[in-house]
Write a structure and sequence with these properties.
Elements (H helix, E strand, L loop, with lengths): L1 E4 L4 H12 L8 E9 L4 H5 L3 H10 L1 H4 E8 L3 E6 L12 H4 L6 E4 L4 E8 L2 E7 L5 E11 L2 E11 H4 L7 H4 L12 E9 L17 E7 L2 E10 L14 E3 L1 H23 L1
Parallel strand pairs: 1-8, 7-13
Antiparallel strand pairs: 2-3, 2-12, 3-4, 4-5, 5-6, 6-7, 8-9, 9-10, 10-11, 11-12
């Protein structure tokens, strides 16, 4: 884990100040609620659609574009889970999208350990791997989020490392075994963290800053914390998921792509 400090030493001074005033960090536990919103990218297909058609698609995909999550956290561990929604139009859950959604995610910072439960076409997987690496650059920009003073940090990450559980049909054309001159797509990450909660965790894959991450934007998705409960009376025990076939991120990604390739080929043979 690397953190690049811009020449603004007051950030470090503020950090030490919060540590001295706040509750013993080792006893700090809490729960944070995040609202996630993604923009809809229709590409060339969308260029041929009317605004009314685009609006209709956005409404039908609302459950995929807007999500709510809960992060239960302690100094070393966190558990990030999605609140399941029922489709307001059909009255059903998003069965197709659930195959490529982020599952229940456990992070252990002390052990550099990720455990994530994924379900893909009825089969359960238990993805075990290291935490995602971020080379954070800390800036001096500040803003308030829910009464907490937050500082800005940025990082650049290979796109595929952030969306290893997800899938788009274009992934099949990009999945060539020939890696010669293959361009690596990168994603700019912008995070806002608060030193008033001096824990290195955050929503989803994001972590490694001097304070809890309250807002993060990566690609077409932004997650914003809407509520924080510090040291609740009823504390939830943070435990890692434990059901499913054990696999790492790279192999899970290959499993998804190979299965979707098989489905596409089978569909092509039926049409032929």
């Amino acid at each position: 884990m690397k953190i690049f400090f811009f020449p603004f030493l007051f950030i470090i001074l503020l950090q030490s100040e919060f540590y001295s005033h706040d509750t013993d960090v080792q006893e700090l536990q809490g729960r944070a609620y995040y609202f996630s919103m993604s923009t809809l990218e229709l590409g060339n297909w969308g260029a041929r659609m009317s605004e009314a058609q685009k609006k209709q698609i956005r409404a039908r995909l609302k459950n995929r574009l807007e999500k709510t999550y809960i992060l239960n956290f302690s100094p070393e561990e966190s558990l990030f889970t999605e609140e399941e929604k029922v489709d307001a139009i059909s009255g059903a859950t998003d069965s197709w999208g659930s195959n490529f959604a982020r599952g229940k995610q456990y992070k252990n910072i002390a052990k550099n350990n990720l455990v994530q439960a994924q379900e893909f076409y009825g089969k359960r997987f238990l993805v075990k791997d290291k935490l995602q690496e971020f080379d954070w650059k800390l800036g001096s920009d500040t803003k308030e989020i829910g009464g907490y003073t937050c500082f800005k940090a940025t990082a650049i990450v290979p796109t595929e490392e952030l969306r290893w559980y997800n899938f788009e049909w274009s992934d099949l054309s990009n999945n060539s075994t020939d890696t010669t001159d293959k361009e690596i797509q990168l994603t700019q990450v912008e995070a806002w963290y608060t030193l008033q909660i001096p824990l290195q965790t955050g929503p989803a894959e994001f972590w490694g800053l001097p304070g809890l991450i309250l807002e993060v934007s990566a690609g077409n998705t932004t997650m914003l914390c809407s509520e924080i409960v510090i040291n609740p009376k009823e504390k939830e025990k943070i435990t890692a998921p434990d059901k499913g076939t054990e696999i790492n991120k790279v192999d899970y990604r290959s499993t998804i792509v190979n299965k979707m390739l098989e489905m596409r080929n089978n569909r092509g043979r039926r049409r032929g």
